[in-house]
Amino acid sequence: MAIEAYKHDMLRCTRCSYCKWIPWENFRNTDFIKGCPSVSRYHWHAYSAGGKFNMALSFLEGRIGYSDSFLDVVYKCHMDGSCDVSCKSVQDIEPLQLMQELRIKCVEDGQVIPAHAAVIDGLRKEDNMLGKPRSERGKWAEGLAVKDLTREKAKVLYHAGCQYSYDEELWPVVRDGLTLLKDAGVDVGIMGHAEMCCGGRAYELGYKDDLDKYAARHANIVKASGVETIVTPCAHCYQTMKVNYDKIGKKLGVEILHITEYLDRLIKEGRIKLNKKVPLKVTYHDPCHLGRLAEPWVHWDGKETKVLGQMIVHDPPKKFRRGAGGVYDIPRDIIRNIPGLSFVEMYRIRACGWCCGGGGGVKEAYPDFAIWTARERIREARAVGADAIVSACPSCKQMFQEAIKETGDDVKVLDIIELVQQSV
Amino acid sequence: MSLAEHEYRALEEVVGAEYITRDPVILDTYNQVWGNKLVFGEKFSPRPAAVLLPGSTEEAQAIVKTCNRYGIPFKPFSSGFEITALGIVSERTIMLDLKRMDRILEIDVKNMHAVVEPYVSVHKLQLEAAKYGLYYGVVAAGPSAGVIASACCHAGSGQTNCSAGAIERNVLGVEWVLPTGDVIKLGSAASGDGWFSAEGPGIGLRGVLRGHCGANGGHGIVTKASVKLYPWYGPAELERAGEIPALRAATEVPYNFRTFIVTFPIQDNAFDAMVEIGKAEIAYSCYQIPVPPGGYLGEGNDEMWAFMQQLDPKMMESPGAMVVVVLGANSDREMEYREKYFHMIREKYGGLLIPEMNNPAVQAGLFDASMFSYGSVRHVFRLTTDFFINPCGDATTTDFLKNLHKVARETMEPYWENGSILQVGSAIFHSMYENYSVGAHHEDMYLYDPFDAESLEGTNELIGKTMDTNGKFRRFGVPCLGAGLQFEPVHHTHQNWSPLYDNYDVWLRKIKAALDPNNVGDWGCYVPPVFP
Predict the structure, then answer these.
(1) What is the CATH number of the domain that holds B457?
(2) What is the pLDDT of residue B482?
(3) B344, B330, B221: which is closest to B277 by C-alpha?
(4) Mean pLDDT of B220-239
(5) How far lies A377's CA from each of A284, A285, A287, B112, B128, in Å?
(6) Residue B311's CB: how many other CB atoms inside 10 A?
(7) Which pLDDT score is estimated for A157?
(8) Best mutation site among A91, A308, A347 for testing chain B: the one with the most B CBs within 10 Å?
(9) Which of residues 395-434 of B touch A (CB under 8 A)?
């Protein structure tokens, strides 16, 4: 869908500014009520979702054109979807989809920012978002004695994702994840050096064709390997394979699970036992790509119509994705089942969570803004008295670690995999 | 019309380069708001010459002084959710987005008031006040409405006006950057004795500050205000449930409150019952609003429509006149008295408690909506895109409002029937001020789609009838175009209607001229010193 398809929504944005905050019904502490990092950091209305509706309409009408500030507004955004949840608490319009299409339009017109172009160059050469050599992709798993699915068969494919594959600081997490599965007797394998990027981040940056390409390649992997399930510890890979592949009509046709979902299944089946006490007071940060952005895609092909004179409805009825269908309870269930651990919620949670700062290409292009966003979340974790902030995404862990390096905060940053590993 | 380079630089010097812009990409996000299509014929109103983000009174003052030096019109706003916030006369006008001034400066628990900056929303203040067992009266525009915008700068009313005061009457003092750049404080704050009294010691200009409809940024910038707080009988934080925000609501009505949705056989009975409830001084909230059938707005229009279709057709055909009543009390005995009195009045006027409208879930949802106005934006915008209000009565008698309602309904009915506007049985918002001691606020509203040619045409025709100085609304006073759509250069409301009502514009324009000798406060949503 081109941006023109969202003109209806641009016209109907009322400028209520709800997109700037978490939904009002979810306010709990007035120090933590902002929802959109972009407009919170840069203030101008343009940086909110409502502002982007305005900007897009102005662009369509020829009142403004491309400029540095246009790209600044488009790309200083984590694409985290907080605005989408808040907007849809009062409206039937699609701010996040418009923002996605704006980025696609920019790329199609050659309006790209250098930092992103460099990332995409690396992706196209090496099939990963970090521009690292393809041959080193499987190094993270060295010594783990796991099936190589380029040569062997297994029911489950453990897909590490680019960040886990190349960021050595994160290797203990991704290795622990695989070890947990193996120890539970799961028939699991990896693609090793043949694993490749899911294309999700490229899509988020506006490079639509790269998503198409990697969706097709993953379809080939699934076919060739014969796996029944793909499990990934990366929230973004999970969201891409589950939601975006479906969105573009390229579902993989196998079960796609985030590792938290699979661990939860194994815990419930008694194949993983959480025995050891973990004496920590932790809070849980909902990764955007596991939470609100992971709500299944809803295909709809119909038309807008009117009832009662002027009430706008759809034929057939259209189910809007309002953020409630993400993975929220499973990670919390796992955490609550760990003995000795004390769990405390932050103020902005589940569909209303504050972003870690790692999404949307902000980390690559505007690292200071990414850190600013992460620091805000650390502040919230501290406000509820947590000793550790737990997440389920490599990007979140990396951003929080970067943030505390700057602040000197001694809060622990953990992935849920690490917690489980400590408890078994 | 752009600013000269030296003018822009002078303004930049005040706030710094980070907080001023003349970039069209940014500017075109400050001239698009609901209602524009109706008033300006397109989604865009005039584009400002620049937008600034002042962070303090001192910066606001320095900006205004610069405007006086160079003859630059200015317009301040907070949330920017109306034409009255963003509508400007000239493309030379600069806007002051007060977003950075967002602090609650003080909550004086003992004396029950709070001092706030302009970007403090009503709901933010409500949450903070609740920690101390206090409450700030809700504004029907919704939880995002600015405390200062609604109390000092613009007309507004809310669901708890009966117990928590008419909004403009809650102001206990302000800090005001006049259009000359002088800063004054009103009331006791002027003498440095605290923010407890708007009328002194010190000058008291509440009437000039706000008047009936507010100056909407046309006569300076209110940078601080003290507002009254009232007792809150609920917990500091309500238990709420619901993953989808649109469906999220309190799980139950708190112990010290009761909520009822009363259906009266005819509208006059509803009016009369509300007057008696007011006289009895028993309600925390008492108002009429178009409660959807079954009390269900749905997460979206499709869900709401599906729900409506499965209801008993009688509920759709004859919803009656519904009044929401919330009782609040400090003790069981007090509640017992209030509840007994309320039912006596309800029964006297034939008010029914229809079970579908009074199950615990609907009551809890309506309680939340009454206290915090959560659903208002969803209600008036999602269904059709925009809404409009017939000339509304304000702070006036019930008989007057009964007649106004009858005329409004007669005028609207043909448009319901031809489908130009949403076809609903009742579309009243009616809220008593201070138990009717200073009358009530009444709106007959309608929902339309400005991007549907037939709906827009019908709505324009309907508005034409209500704005006709020789029409049926002539005897009901100057039409206050509800919800912030009054833009003088387009509607000429003051210019056309003032001769019918004591030439009040002469005084209004004199006030403007006295406060703003250089006419730098953008007058689009106020009044010019001389009509162009």
Answers:
(1) 3.40.462.10
(2) 54
(3) B344
(4) 97
(5) 11, 8, 12, 33, 21
(6) 14
(7) 98
(8) A308
(9) 416, 419-424
B301 and B317 inside one domain: yes
Cβ separation of B26 and A324 shorter than 8 Å? Answer: no
Nearest to B81 among A17, A23, A58 (CB): A17
Q: Name the domain boundary from A268, A290, A313.
A: A268
Beta carbons of A55 and B423 less than 8 Å apart: no
- In A, minimum Cα distance to B34 occurs at A14
Q: What are phi and psi of A16, to 5 degrees?
A: -70, -20
Residues of chain A in contact with residue B143, where contact means CB-CB under 8 angstroms, are: 24
Report yes or no: B37 at the A interface, CB cutoff 8 Å: yes
- On chain A, the residues whose CB falls within 8 A of the CB of B372 are 24
Residue B284, pLDDT above cutoff 70: yes
Report the distance separating Cα A281 and Cα A384, nearest Å. Answer: 10
Q: Which domain holds residue A82?
A: 3-111+273-423
> Hey, what are A243's tokens?
């939601």
Interface check B246 vs A, CB under 8 A: yes
Q: How many CB pairs under 8 A join A and B?
A: 201
Identify all chain A residues contacting B385, using CB atoms and an 8 Å cutoff.
11-12, 14, 312
Whole-number mean pLDDT of chain B? 93
- Residue A296 shares a structural domain with residue A388: yes
Q: List B residues 269-328 in contact with A (Cβ-Cβ < 8 A).
A: 299-303, 305-306
Q: Which of residues 5-34 of B touch A (CB under 8 A)?
A: 19, 21, 23-26, 28-30, 32-34
Do A294 and A375 share a domain, yes or no? yes
> Least CA distance to B47: which residue of chain A?
A63
Q: Are residues A65 and A172 in the same domain?
A: no
In a 3-state reduction of DSSP, which class is residue A313? strand
Note the pLDDT tens digit of each residue in A303-315: 999 999 999 999 9
Half-sphere exposure of A185 (CA within 13 A, CB side): 8
Residue B318 has pLDDT above 60, yes or no: no
Residue B392 pLDDT: 74
Q: Which residues of A touch B371 (CB under 8 A)?
A: none
Rounded (10°) angle between helices A49-60 and A95-108 = 50
Q: Please, what's the b/e burial string for B367-399 (b: 16 or more CB within 10 A of its CB; e: otherwise)?
A: bbbbbbbbbbbbbbbbbbbbbbbbbbbbebebe
pLDDT digits (tens, 9 = 90+) for B423-475: 876 688 999 999 999 889 888 989 999 999 999 999 999 999 988 999 999 99
pLDDT of residue B485: 74
Contacts of B146 in chain A (CB under 8 A): none
How far, CA to CA in Å, does B362 sit from each of B123, B253, B291, B355, B368? 22, 10, 10, 10, 10
Mean pLDDT score, B320-325: 90
Which candidate, A178, A138, A185, A145, places its Cα nearest to that of A420? A178
Question: What residue of B is the nearest CA neighbor of A58?
Answer: B28
pLDDT in tens, B490-500: 989 999 999 99
pLDDT confidence of residue B426: 66
Establish if B505 belongs to a structural domain.
no
Smallest Cα distance from B126 to chain A, Å: 10
Q: How many domains does chain B have?
A: 3
Q: How far apart are CA B103 and CA B106, in angstroms?
A: 9
Domain count, chain A: 2
Q: What is the pLDDT at residue B156?
A: 78
User: Mean pLDDT for each 10-residue chunk of chain A (424 residues)?
Assistant: 94 97 96 98 98 98 98 98 97 98 98 97 97 96 97 98 98 98 98 97 98 98 97 98 98 98 98 98 98 98 96 97 97 98 98 98 98 98 98 98 95 98 98
Place of tokens 């609100």: A292
Domain range enclosing B95: 5-99
CB contact under 8 A, B43 and A11: yes
**Complex-level ipTM beyond the 0.90 threshold:** yes
Please give, rounded to a whole number of angstroms, the shortest distance from the CA of A57 to a CA of chain B: 9
